[in-house]
Specification:
heterodimer, A: 12 helices, 1% strand, B: 271 residues, MetI-like fold, 2 domains, globular
Chain lengths: 294, 271
């Protein structure tokens, strides 16, 4: 038995090795190092040194960090619910309404596959405050003084949020569609026999049985939104002022523009704790509202 | 299924239009002159299409080189992932060995850590290895994806163990089982992984932004950004460049969308 075991082990590692070497060196080690770097001072002015919690104390006094932190919550707090409502509504309509689901599914899915850079460039043009088609349209329907979108401190973040919802709603719609198709049809038949209205069917059959999908979509979408970067980089560069500066954008700037590797690492640690915390809370809450069929 | 409701076609058509309009606007603007781009009402089909825009962009910046760089990175990373991930996943799914669970947990755990959290230590490591400003840096970072291992393993688990056991009794080596049984049976998973990796590498922006500094190494996404900053008033050229950057993704998407959808359910819902 032991002999077979050690032979198995040898075979297993032969299969694992090409991936394992790369994984340990370039993913696992950096993950472990990320935390360590948070306690270092490492910039272009002085040699690397251990500074304990100094980076974290700096963060508390750094108004740019606080703004980036709140902006990240602002972006996520609006993007996630809007995306989920849009995706769920689309999936429900698509699931019920049509024979040729495929073509519409593809149309809605495509913005997710298209590169954020190309898409952000187009939206930047669409949002142009004076010449952009969106404001042309708003003026044409009688809104004399439309928002200045990415050029306005107030409207820049909503502009980025709208574009992000547009880009990812179709992706989550595909997930909801898969979830809807997994709901046993006979439950609806039983409900019909019992005289349930469409709303009652949605409330007592669809929604409860869709909670596993909803949970998965919520978890993914939260993490995805916290990581927002590309569209901010192209559309607003964190501005105007600091109105759309989010955590990843600020971390990127501190690390790769200002070379403050230690400070940026500490912020990356906080960023990770934020994601981890929210994910853990999600999993804890799961029992309260998610129904698994079996 | 139960009865279809034709009136639901209206909201679906409306939201489809909303999804497509920015792309149509992009295409239309790419065939206009700079003055026409922002004219209102929008002329969706330009009267006098400026096809020359699509020629100009290739000479204004090194668009051809950026295209080649992106294709090179995409192909190498995708092939490397297919190979290393499918091999590693076989060990995790079909071979019993003592550290199996602990190692797999390590893979899963790092999947939770976003790239943005490890990008700094990774950069410092690669800088010390002298790999910054080389394509190799991005290849190394993306060739060993834990997600790829996870995806392949999930699929392998659905292939019955009896099949593997029978092959072992017949004297097929482990590599033979992987090569002759698992790989042919896992084509859908390999296809999904190929597409995910292709789209990810093609669209990746933050990675190239951090690692590729000299002009000749740029990928297409960096090229577009450079285009915007250098020729910010050349609206139609910017749109033409954006259209060009989307074409390969559109082709792959239209040809393989089945695997996108299957891949999504494979990696998530059935996990």
């Amino acid at each position: 038995m032991r002999k077979a075991n050690s032979r198995n082990r040898l075979t297993a590692y032969c299969f694992l090795l090409p991936n394992l070497i790369g994984f340990v060196t370039f993913t696992l080690l950096p993950v472990l190092a990320a935390l360590g770097l948070s306690f270092m001072r490492w910039d272009s002015y002085s040699p690397i040194s251990f500074v304990g919690l100094r980076n974290f104390q700096l963060m508390l006094k750094d108004s740019s960090f606080k703004i980036a932190f709140w902006n990240t919550l602002y972006f996520t707090g609006l993007t996630v619910p809007l995306t989920i409502v849009a995706a769920l509504a689309l999936a429900l309509v698509l699931n019920k309404g049509l024979r040729s689901v495929k073509i519409f599914r593809s149309i809605h899915f495509f913005p997710h596959v298209a590169s954020t850079i190309a898409v952000a460039v187009v939206w930047q043009f669409l949002y142009h405050p004076d010449m952009g088609p969106i404001n042309h349209f708003l003026r044409a329907i009688g809104i004399g003084d439309p928002p200045r979108w990415t050029a306005s401190v107030t409207w820049a973040m909503p502009a980025v949020i709208l574009m992000s919802v547009w880009k990812s709603a179709g992706y989550y719609m595909v997930m909801f569609l898969a979830g809807l198709q997994g709901i046993p049809q006979h439950l609806y038949e039983v409900a019909t026999i019992d005289g349930a209205t469409a709303w009652q069917k949605f409330r007592s059959v669809t929604l409860p049985l869709l909670t596993p999908t909803l949970f998965f979509v919520l978890t993914m979408n939260l993490i995805y939104s916290f990581k927002v970067f590309d569209q901010i980089y192209i559309m607003t560069q964190g501005g105007p002022g600091r109105a759309t500066s989010v955590l990843v954008y600020y971390i990127y700037t501190q690390a790769f523009v200002n070379q403050n590797f230690g400070y940026a690492s500490a912020m990356a640690t906080v960023f990770f704790l934020l994601i981890l915390g929210v994910t853990i809370v999600q999993f804890r809450m799961q029992e309260k509202w998610v129904n698994y069929l079996d | 299924m139960n009865k279809r409701r034709p009136y639901l076609l209206i909201p679906i058509l409306a939201s489809s239009a909303l999804m497509l309009l920015p792309f149509v606007w992009m295409l239309s603007a790419s065939l206009k002159t700079n003055v026409q781009v922002f004219q209102f009402p929008i002329q969706w089909i330009p009267k006098d299409p400026q096809w020359s825009n699509y020629i100009t962009i290739w000479s204004k910046i090194k668009f051809g080189l950026y295209y080649f760089n992106t294709i090179k990175l995409t192909v190498i990373v995708t092939l490397a992932q297919l190979l290393t991930c499918s091999l590693a996943a076989y060990a995790f799914a079909k071979i019993q060995f003592p550290e199996r669970n602990a190692l797999f947990v390590a893979y899963i755990a790092t999947m939770i850590v976003p790239f943005q959290v490890v990008m700094i230590p990774q950069f410092i490591l690669l800088r010390n290895l002298g790999l910054v400003n080389k394509h190799l840096a991005l290849i190394i970072l993306q060739a060993f994806s834990p997600f790829g291992v996870f995806l392949m393993r999930q699929y392998y688990l659905s292939i019955p163990n009896e099949l593997v056991e029978a092959a072992r009794i017949d004297g097929l080596s482990e590599f033979g089982i992987y090569r002759r049984i698992m790989l042919p049976l896992s084509k859908p998973a390999l296809a999904s992984l190929t597409i995910f990796t292709f789209v990810f590498v093609w669209n990746d922006f933050l990675g190239p932004l951090i690692y590729l500094h000299s002009g000749d190494l740029r990928t297409i996404q960096l090229g577009i950004r450079m285009f915007i900053s250098q020729y910010s008033a050349e609206y139609s050229l910017i749109m033409a460049a954006s259209v060009c950057s989307l074409i390969p993704v559109i082709i792959v998407f239209l040809a393989c969308q089945k695997y996108f959808v299957e891949g999504i359910s494979m990696s998530g819902l059935k996990g």
